[in-house]
Amino acid sequence: MFNHSSISEFLLLAFADTRELQLLHFGLFLGIYLAALLGNGLIITAIACDHRLRTPMYFFLLNLSLLDLGSISTTLPKAMANSLWDTRTISYAGCAAQLFLFVFFVSAEYCLLTIMAYDRYVAICKPLHYGTLLGSRACAHMAAAAWGSGFLYALLHTANTFSLPLCHGNAVDQFFCEIPQILKLSCSDAYLREVGLLVVSACLGFGCFVFIVVSYVQIFRAVLRIPSEQGRHKAFSMCLRHLAVVSLYVSTGIFTYLKPPSVSSAILNLMVSLLYSVLPPSVNPLIYSMRNQQLKDALKKLFQSVVFQKQ
């Protein structure tokens, strides 16, 4: 049960005090949000409409874009509304929902990135078994496992975090509700229970990271044995896009939660949180569309069909 005895709302961290800067932040975030919606929306539409992209890699990419849309839609709209209306408040239920959804989408995305590493490993190291190991049913089960794991993980942490007694005020030192900031408001030793869950989660996340690293070590060893330079280039280009997304995702998350306390400040925390909560969903479509001729052809075909229909 959630602890709803004394706090009815939380105060989020404001981006600026002056009205002009608040409106500037609103315009900036609106542009970023629309770009993320457009990029991820185009990828989802292109993959869903083009039968040539009905492969495991693009199926997982479609799921990744859906998770990116959910992740950025959990944090930015509320931040934009607060900047536009010059307010900092978020209701208790709204804060719990925001924390749950953000943890859900981010953890599911990390699980999916791990699955995508396995997809690349099978495609390059075991190409003759690709259709068997990654059939349509297996892909659906893997994607469902990623979404389900994210849901259970978020439900566990949200219920545990909001069951703690909160007596250190209601000011959250962040522009959205996240677990470490809510734990700072707790006045009970029970917060150690959530810290323990976070440690276990970090170990599981590290295990996924090791799996990704080991997969890519095997992938690069296999790629270097390809006799054709064109073949090596094609294999590298397929893997480097995924590796770039994983690197962006992991590096921003590690810097956020493992940076030394001596370099911690409200402004730095705000900037770093923007990196890991806003940057990946915004640039992932760009990373995956660069030098991806199949996706570019699908988008071109989509644009042409829309233009011809209007004519």
Description:
With 311 residues, the chain is an all-alpha fold. Helices cover 76% and strands 2% of the residues. It has a two-stranded antiparallel ribbon. The longest helix is centred in the middle third of the chain and has 34 residues, at 92-125. 32% of the residues are buried.
Can I get a quick summary?
The protein has 311 residues and is an all-alpha fold. 76% of the residues lie in helices and 2% in strands.
Specify Rg, calculated over alpha carbons: 21 Å
Strand content: under 5%
**Tally of DSSP β-strands:** 2
Biggest beta sheet summary:
2 strands, antiparallel
pLDDT below 50 for ≥5 consecutive residues: which ranges?
none
Distance between the termini: 57 Å
Helix- and strand-based class? mainly alpha
**Number of distinct helices:** 11
Which series of helices and strands comes N to C? EHHEHHHHHHHHH
**Average pLDDT, all residues:** 84
Tell me roughly what share of residues is in helical segments. Answer: over 70%
Shape: globular
Strand arrangement, major sheet: 1-2
